[in-house]
Model the fold of this input.
Amino acid sequence: MSEYWNAELETMAWSGVERWQAGRLAETLPALWQRSRFYARLHGDRVGQVSMRSLSDLAELPFTLKDDLRAAQQAASADAPFGENQAAPLADIVQAISSSGTTGPPLYYALTARDVDVFSDAIANVWFTAGIRRDDVVAHLVGLPMVAGGLPYADGFRRIGATLCWLGGFPTERIVRDMRRLRVTALLATTSFAQYLAERWDDVGRETGIESALAKVLGGGEPGLAQPDIRARIQAGLALTHLRETMGLGDVLPSMWGECEAQDGMHFNAQRSVAVELVDPANGQQLPWTDGATGELVYTTFARDATPVVRYRSRDHALVVGTRCACGRTSPRIRCIGRTDDMLIFKGMNVFPSAIRDLVVARFATRVEPVLRIVKEHTDQVRFDDAIPLEVEAARGLAASPPEALAREIEAEVRNQLQVRVVVTVLPPDTLPRGTYKNALVVVRDVGAKGSP
Ligand SMILES: [Zn+2]
Done:
């Protein structure tokens, strides 16, 4: 028997959830047009003209792009430091959060006390679905309180009633030792850090002389956890009972998707405050949530006071893994297959670096390490007219097998499966850098790793 954080919304037929959300939007949109100069302007002649009977009526409104939010923020002033989309008076705002700023100048979002409550509840819902309970001792490893994964994630753990151990910010060595000393049972980490930990956990254990209590790892922040081989290594290295993927977006709500005990794709857990659409990234048309569908996730908040978003293009591309689940939750289950920002173009065809990584790691699991990278000539390169350079590592213990033969096999497999040509260099094991935060999947030649903190 599954347990739920919000049994009513989590088990209601998905069409019923969408109808309820459309009702909430019908109520909140008119007020939004009053409160947000940005949305009054962006929605222009649609203001007051949209009757929200179902979520398909959202299609009458234009999308909001990250650049739109950037421009709105440029209009900041002393009484509206968050710009044109500050939809609550400064006196009611209790917190600012910042986007990571990895793809441009950071954006700031504001929260009222009610927003903090809405965030905490939704994030707690994700952590609960992912298996966190009151008696867990949770290591929180994000170092910066102001980012979406900082204070909001911590609030989510406390909302459940788990013991929050905010270790992020300490040196890695200390974090790893303190997790033993504090008998940490659960932690939230990037896939890269979980991999790093899986390789070192036993050595540290021997030094501290304290048995590992760690049983649950929540992964997120980068793709990779969908890979059976990466999962198996982390699960075995840390002797876990739970390994669950989670995902959210700072611009909307920092954690909205989480895996249940089926560990087969992430459920949507922000039903109470966010509506989600699946759209065709090429033409912007809404797509139905059907098994096997792929599309871009688009979010609309209907319970956010200070910096709301309507039809926000996340640039996250998802695969719908399933629309029914043994756990009884009715929300679709998805995997993130890549971000628009990461997309490369090979001879006019779109390809995600993560698709190449996933294919190679899955098909050559016993012969390569699950760390590889694509090499660009310069930072802005998106187009490849020649084969895409790909560096892989031979599996440990297999260094003696002929690398040339393996390289040609990988090239053939990628060409057959993805219709993309790569030119593979097989390196000895442990050559590629492994970070404790995120391993860069795409690097620029001779400049070194990009995208690490
Ligand atoms: Zn489920």
About this structure: Residues 173 and 308 are 40 Å apart (CA to CA). The two ends are 42 Å apart (CA to CA).
